[in-house]
Amino acid sequence: MAPGSASRPESWHAALHRLQREGLPHALATQVTSAGSTPREPGARMVITADAVFDTLGGGTFEYQVIEAARARLAGAQGDSEGGMSLEAFSLGGRSGQCCGGFVNVLLEVFPGSATTLAIFGAGHVGTELVRLAAPLPWQVRWHDSREAIFPDWAASQPRLECRHAPDPAAAVSELPTGTHALVLTHDHAEDCALVDALLTRGDCTSVGLIGSRSKWASFRSRLAVAGHSDAALEQVRCPIGVAAGPDSNKKRGGDKTPYAIALATIAELLPMMEGAKRTDQRGLAPDDLRQVLS
């Protein structure tokens, strides 16, 4: 049943579109071949999540076994960047104990969901452009700001985006998943410093970026060192962010300093760090896989 719907079940294709768009874990089960008497025909599909099922392959023990197999694969894919495919064979008179006695092959395609979280602290001009640019990418984005009613209306409809009012930097950082990529660019330098302090204290972020000049970072670095952070920890912070790479750049910003340009360069910096995150919105079989299934 579709979330929030009390009347009409959500079809498998509507559920698949929604789950892919939101980057949530799910499995697509497709009946690819059949022999003898079977509840459904080849091409029948259903979508399965950890707590919901959309559409049907015909019901009965066979369908429950498909759901069980899909959920086992989903549980095994958590934290992995690739779900992959498997072919499950069901003898309806044997494995499934159904009287129709046919034989069915079901292809399970498992999508583990977005493997990467990007935390953006600050809903100012650069933060807004970062969120816009991240929209087509397969990342879960958490957008934080300590100010109330600061997020634009369009943010509510952007996929894989969660807006969070975060007046307490330490509390906001404590709620991030392990391996988060964090970007700090709030309206207040003291808040920026508190956030970097909290992120380094956690110690499990994949990357930490801070907007600002080299002089800003020199001031922050001194204060963070006094707070007990080691040189190795401080070296993990990239500041400034959004600087074009090159042998002569020396982390000095030049050229276009508009919010869009800074955001674009920052996303470009992040992409190589996230190259292990596979797209979650692609489906279907490669030709070699398809030949193997149908042979």
From TrEMBL:
Residues 20-76 form the XdhC- CoxI domain. Residues 118-270 form the XdhC Rossmann domain. Gene3D superfamilies: NAD(P)-binding Rossmann-like Domain. The gene is xdhC. It comes from Halomonas tibetensis. InterPro entries: MoCofactor_Util/Proc, Xanthine_DH_XdhC, XdhC_CoxI, XdhC_Rossmann_dom. This is Xanthine dehydrogenase accessory protein XdhC. It comes from the Bacteria.
